[in-house]
Every structure is written in C-alpha cells, then in structure tokens.
Amino acid sequence: MTRPWILFLVILGFMFFCFTTAHAARIKDIASLQGVRNNQLIGYGLVTGLNGTGDDMKKSRFTLQGVYNMMVRNGITVNPDDIEDIKVKNVAAVMVISQLPPFAKPGSTIDVQVSSLGDAKSLAGGTLLMTPLHGADNNVYAVAQGPLTIGAFSFGGKAARAQKNHPTAGNISGGAIVENSVPFELGENGTLLYQLNNADFTTATNMADKINSRFGVMTAQPMDSGSVQVNIPSQMQNSLVEFISAIESLDVKADSTARVVVNERTGTIVMGKDVKLSTVAVSHGNLSLVIKEDSDVYQPNPLAEGDTVITPNTNITVAEDDGQLVVLDVQESVTIGEIASALNAIGATPRDLIAIFQAIKAAGSMHGELIIL
What does DSSP say about strands 259-263 and 369-372: parallel, antiparallel, or unpaired? Predict the structure, then answer.
C-alpha cells in the first residue's frame, strides 16, 4: 500500500469515527433567529499619503473629481476650470465595505475593508479620509477613517518589480464608528422564528421535539424544512434573553442528505456517513502516459563552415496494467471504511476514485447525491 493511500484511509477512518460518535449539535450552530443578521455597508472614499503609488489623474477621472470635491468641502477654493491642473500621485480612490452586526449601538466600532478602485499600484502607508458607509436603503449607518493595514509591499522600476501579497487592498481594525442602529424587536407577537442553516425536514422536526421536551408541548412547531416557530411561554416574557440562551444551548440531532463531494482539481473526496452503495462490479486499469520532449543538437567541427542543427525528439511511453473486475457486494450496514477497503482492493488512487464514483452514480448503484466541485 502506498503512503498516499495510508493517509487517505486514515482521514476516512477519522471521518467515520466522528460521524459515529458525534450525533448532536447545538441549536445555535445549526439555526439562527430570523432578523438577527449582519447588514452590509459600502462607501466611496479617498486614501491619501501614498508614496507616489496613487491613481493616475489622467486615467482615473473619478479620483480627480473626488479630490476636487474634498477640497471644496474643506473650504479650499478651486476654480472648476483649473481642475485639470490638479496633479497628485499620493491619492487613490477606494471602495470601503463593512458589515453592521445585529444590535450594534451608536458609538461602537466595526472593522472595514478597503480596496483600490482606480489604477493605484499600492495603498501601503495610506490613510483613509472620513467616509460615510451606507446601507441598502442609502442611509448612513457608520463613518470610517484611519490608517490602513496592508501586510504587503510593491516596489520596483521600469525593468523589474518586487511584490509580496496584494498591495491594493487592506483593512482598518475598528476603523468605523456606528452612527445609527438597525431597529429590531425580539419576540414580536410573542413568537420567535428560527431558520435552519441547512433546510431539512428531519432536523426541523428533531429541533421542535427537543424544545418541546424542555419547555412544554406546543412550544415549538416546524413550519417547513427550513424554519421552526417558537412560542414564548408567559413566564419567560420578561426574561427573553435567558429564554433564547436556553434554547441555543440545547443539543439536537442534525440530519442531512447522503452525499459524496469530490474536487477533481485537488483530488479531494469527502463522503457522508449515510452514503449507501448497491452491489456493483467495477473494472479498473491504470493507464500511464509519459511524453518527454528533448532535442538532438549537431554542431559543425571547430573552424569548419556550417550551421548548428537542432532536431526535435519526442519519446512517448504508454503503460497499462491489467484490468481487474471486482464485485463490490454491499450490504445495508456498509461503512465508509468498507467502501474504501473494497475500492482499495483494485488499487484505486483518490483521483481514480472520482471517476469510479461518477461511473457508479451513472449506473444507479450509489444512493446519495454526488457533488463535483
């Protein structure tokens, strides 16, 4: 057995161990309250203080217009007819994005991400000027400003350039101050609505049963495969936060569709514990194709007239092992380890398994979903 296969089987064994020992998950990990979510913010701003790596004002006209507007707002008189005379290399137009967390109050700070909008070469050493951040309703919810953290550099001249990471994007930790909060009322109409991260009828039913066993019958009922409605008990109306905390800490057996996920680019295969196979015969043969390109060079003798002759030479080697026909006699109690052992018997590598799983699925012998990334 080759060393890559040992690693592959160890990973499968670990996955199987996790699947068979960990049956439950907290409600807070598989569901969230409707309305309790982040809100995306965006803004347009200017970064100044760059070391000659800013936008080209002749190409990035919006940067030139932004500089002019900034000067006017700060009381600097600039003749509109002379705007073309503004030539600076230390300013870059940027887009600023952030996420407003639920229940964020005015005065709290949030992180922001800054990315170049024009043709700036680097934002290293720059400072973001005051930038209002708008929500989807075009209202201002935060204001961002401060020095950027890039974690990259880009230096060079006309002939060569040295660069590390991505110098035209950065972030500001705590760089925005919340000015307005998003109004939200918990427990409106005396109910809470939980949305499952992965919709599943079995998981929704298990979640409702668990809540009812803890707080009484008819406290929760599944609305569909993706949501569970919880009625707030009368004795918990004045302690809603504690009630929600108690619900989130409950362990629920989360179910999911049996599926196999494969990534053909990396050769990664992940199989769920509920994947079943019917009896199927698999024939597998290893095909090895090696193409080697080199050249034969013939040079004239010293002091002799003539030209050097280069002749391309291509060597092709094809090797194919004898195919094997293996019957995978699968019972209802099949495990991931048994599937891997059966496929390992025919010498299949992880990349071979991808093709084998595709063929088994096409033959109708795999009972589960096959997802190819």
Answer: parallel
- Domains belonging to the chain, first-starting first, are 24-36+185-253 (3.30.1360.40), 39-178 (no CATH), 259-287+321-372 (no CATH)
pTM, full prediction: 0.67
According to the model, what pLDDT value does residue 246 have?
93
122's enclosing H/E stretch is: none
Q: How many C-beta atoms lie closer than 10 Å to residue 145's C-beta?
A: 16
What does the alpha-carbon distance between residue 63 and residue 85 come to, in Å, rounded to a whole number?
A: 13
Per-residue pLDDT, 204: 94
Here the tokens at position 241 are 């936060």
CB-based contact 62:81 (threshold 8 Å):
no
CA distances from 262 to 102, 194, 268, 285 (A): 36, 31, 6, 21
Is the Cα dihedral 354, 355, 356, 359 positive or negative? Answer: positive
Mean pLDDT by 10 residues, the chain (373 residues): 48 48 78 91 95 85 85 81 78 95 93 93 92 94 94 68 81 95 85 92 94 92 94 90 93 85 77 71 54 62 70 56 53 54 64 76 79 82
Chain centroid to CA 67: how far?
A: 35
pLDDT at position 367 is: 76
Which tokens hold the place of 360?
A: 């088994």
Q: Which helix (H) or strand (E) holds 359?
A: helix 350-362
Which H or E run contains 46? Answer: strand 39-48
Cβ-defined contacts of 187-192 (< 8 Å, 24+): 187/232, 187/237, 187/240, 190/231, 190/232, 190/237, 191/229, 191/230, 191/231, 191/232, 192/33, 192/229, 192/230, 192/232, 192/244, 192/247
pLDDT of residue 2: 44
Residue whose structure tokens are 């400003």? 145
- Locate 231 and state its tokens: 């009625």
The CA distance from 175 to 237, in Å, is: 37
